Amino acid sequence: MDSATSSDAEASRANPAWRSLRWKIAALVATAACAVALAVGLLVHRSTYERLLGEGGDRAVTALLPAVHTYRQTGRTPSFAQEPPPPAVRARLARTDGFVTWYDDRRPDIPWMWAAQAVGGRILAVKVDMGSDLRGLEALDRHMAIASLTVLAVVVPLSALAAELPNRRLRRVAATARRIAAGDLDARTTPECGGRDEISEIAGTVDAMADSLRDRLLNEQRFTADVAHELRTPLMGLVAAVTLLPPGEATDLVTNRVQALRTLAEDLLEISRLDAGIEQADLRPVPVAELVRAALARSGLDGRVTVAGRPTAETDPRRLDRILANLLANAARHGAPPVEISVSAATIVVRDHGPGYPAAVLADGPRRFRTGTPERGRDHGIGLTIALGQARVIGAALTFANAADGGAVATLRLPPPRDAYEPYMS
Question: How far does the chain reach from its first CA to its final CA, in angstroms?
Answer without folding.
Answer: 43
